Amino acid sequence: MPDEQALKDAILRHVGLYRLTLEAVVRHLFFNDSPKLKGGDPVRNMLDSLVKDKLLRLQQFPNKVEFWTPTIQGAKQAGVRRGRGTPRDAQSLSTHLAVLWFCCMASKRRYRLEPEDLRELFGPEKPHDNIPHCIAPDGDGPRIYRIIFPEQADAATAIQQVASILDEIFMRNRPIHDWIKARDYGMAILGQTEEKCADLNRRIHAQIEGRDPIIARGHCVVELGPSPKTLRMALNRWFNDNR
């Protein structure tokens, strides 16, 4: 294990990149899923130390699940934009939570990309900074994913949203269009529950108004991206599956 300061720096960079983190994520990524200990838990001690140093801020979702975000001082030390150290609204927190889970707690490890990374990849036609992307070391090479959060609870409407995004890219963004055709750029559609994911996954293979299924038009995956409301259920399932 790296020395304490190196570990603190790594955790701080992680929180700066993902905008927030959970105790379970820190335990998984940095402490090899070590069991939680009463009175002397190294994961909790590390997070408490970062809060004491005024580098992280401890917060709670409405369901009392705790999470940590960077302070302005923490964002500066992590080498990310100062704005990431200011408090986030509920919608931003929900978005960043889903991205964190998809990248760090799924069966495959992914890495969130910074706007600068997208600019380097796609030049001036890069996607807007507020559209999350990640990179995944898939079996046939690295693949970029645009992360999509369906706006509607109804799966059919959500898939129509994804189809519209693909249509927009095909019409207006030639560089990304070429990446999609090469299957080096895909869509990651996140559902808030496992049940929603199953319904979404079924529908990406179905025809939409007589057109080919979305899955035939570009690489798509459907995975869990819990919201604050469904986070406790996701954590309970994750712990049960990884005992």
Please provide a written account of the structure.
The longest helix has 18 residues, at 155-172. The chain has helices spanning 4-18, 23-30, 42-52, 72-78, 90-104, 115-122, 155-172, 174-181, 194-204, 214-217, 231-241, and strands at 56-60, 66-70, 111-112, 133-138, 141-148, 185-191, 220-224. The mean pLDDT is 89. The protein contains 11 helices and 7 strands. The chain is an alpha/beta fold and 243 residues long. The chain has a 5-stranded mixed beta sheet with strand order 3-4-5-6-7. A hairpin with a 5-residue loop joins strand 1 (56-60) and strand 2 (66-70).
Characteristics:
about 240 residues; alpha/beta; 5-stranded mixed sheet; two-stranded antiparallel sheet; 11 helices; 7 strands; about 15% strand; globular
What letter string, H or E per element, gives the SSE order? Answer: HHHEEHHEHEEHHEHHEH
Estimate the mean pLDDT confidence. Answer: 89
Biggest sheet layout = 5 strands, mixed
Shape: globular
Which segments are poorly predicted (pLDDT under 50) over 5 or more consecutive residues? Answer: none
- In the sheet with the most strands, the strands line up as 3-4-5-6-7
User: Helix count?
Assistant: 11
The counted number of beta strands is: 7
Q: Can you give the helix content as a percent range?
A: 40-55%
- Radius of gyration from the CA trace? 19 Å
Beta-strand content: 15-25%
- N- to C-terminal distance: 22 Å
Structure class:
alpha/beta
How would you summarize the topology of this molecule?
Elements: H1 4-18, H2 23-30, H3 42-52, E1 56-60, E2 66-70, H4 72-78, H5 90-104, E3 111-112, H6 115-122, E4 133-138, E5 141-148, H7 155-172, H8 174-181, E6 185-191, H9 194-204, H10 214-217, E7 220-224, H11 231-241
Helix pairs in contact: 1-4, 7-9
